[in-house]
Amino acid sequence: MISLTEYPVYSSSLRTVQSITTMRSFFWLLAVSLFSLAPLEYSSAQSPNVVLTDPRTLTQTKKKLVLRSANLSSALGALKKQAEEQVQFASRSYYSVTRKQRVPKGVRLTEFFTSNSPRYNKSDRTQLHGFIRALETLAYAWYFLEDPRYARAAVTLSYRFLLHNRTGMEPHLNRASYQTSGRVVPYGVVETAELPRVVDALELISNSRYYTPSFRSAVKGWFLDLLVWLITSRQGREAEYLKNNIAVQYDVQVATYALFTDRAHIAKRVVEAAKHRRVATQIASNGSMPEELSRTRSWDYSTENAKYFARLAMIGTRVGVNLWRYRARSGGGVRRALNFLVPFAQKRRRWSHRQAGAFNRWRLVHALKIAASRRRHRRFRRHLTGTFELSPYDSTRLIYGID
């Protein structure tokens, strides 16, 4: 278990973090300052401080764009079009968990809420995923095209979704996967499994003039709140001890937020512990994941877990833990898990495990893109390009260096 007592830095954080996120005057000043500070020079030489993909790959992609690479021009055009749409959206609207129509008594509009009851819709999930996609689009467009409008829109959307005292989401998941019976379950952790992409996006825009010191402090305070909640809450502690994909998603979040809030030692501890807590217990010697194979949608869960294992391994490269090459005594490993799934996506083997619904081989593409973004992983790059016909207008080609 990750204990706060092992990390004295959290002792003071727990006492002060609530004041950071509830100071109304602070946020009022933040809103005013976003567009009032003098412009700062953009430094294209600054390396992106991302964790979910290889920063060297992004740097190399940007160099190719400067040289007007024909192979990436269509992807860049698609990214620019998507970013322009989000700029227009940010000028007239915003994403927020407060848009839900109905909640049980005692649930605040600013709390992230999903439920097992059909009485309540999943609007919070829709708003969250919309925000993540929008912010990621704007951040990468800013990085590759250096148009300050993209950074400005990214900060605006982030402020409204995370920090605004009326529309901002509270940094906890107490109401995620809400059970009408009142039972507390750890499944709510998966609701923010894609939120680490926001951290990468924020790092990409951190050298823009709109990413002010006050915004930096506020957004780091928000993620510190969420990190503390994950480590100390009952839901977080239960998720940590699960033996399936939820625990891997938990690790990715804890490690990412720890890095973002300048607590790399926690991130390193999480990834190092994942060797025996996740890889050794979840990946068999042949690369299969028995816990996920037992599910009714075994292909979907196996490929999803492979994606989060790949992300965890990528985080490991930031903290000096090579999870990519680690192999448990039983023979299981992250790369072996990916290699196990590839033949099924290539249709060379038939998936014989239970799979309710259609078998979608494209579900593996996310994990392979992450693995292929590492410049050393030429084999996974061959698997990716040889298995899937990626559209030339796929903007993720830029992110993962697929030209």
Give your account of this protein's structure.
The protein is mostly helical. The protein folds into two domains: 1-34 and 54-241, Chondroitin AC/alginate lyase (Glycosyltransferase); 251-372, no CATH class. It has 17 helices and no strands. Helix 8 (213-232) packs across helix 9 (234-240) and helix 13 runs parallel beside helix 15 (365-372). Mean pLDDT is 88; it is low at 3-45.
Order of helices and strands: HHHHHHHHHHHHHHHHH
Note poorly predicted spans: 3-45
SSE-based structural type: mainly alpha
Radius of gyration, CA atoms, in whole angstroms: 21 Å
How far from one another are the termini? Answer: 42 Å
Q: Work out the number of β strands.
A: 0
CATH architectural label of the largest domain = Alpha/alpha barrel
Question: Which range does the strand content fall in?
Answer: under 5%
Helix percentage range = 55-70%
Global shape: globular
What is CATH's topology name of the largest domain?
A: Glycosyltransferase
Would you state the CATH class of the largest domain? Mainly Alpha
Helix segment count?
17
Average pLDDT works out at 88
Total domains, how many? 2
Task: Note the main sheet.
Answer: none
Give me the CATH superfamily of the largest domain: Chondroitin AC/alginate lyase
Please summarize what this structure is.
The protein has 403 residues and is mainly α.
Chain-wise SSE layout:
Blueprint: H1 9-22, H2 24-33, H3 55-66, H4 70-92, H5 123-145, H6 148-163, H7 196-204, H8 213-232, H9 234-240, H10 245-260, H11 264-282, H12 290-293, H13 298-319, H14 334-345, H15 365-372, H16 378-387, H17 396-400
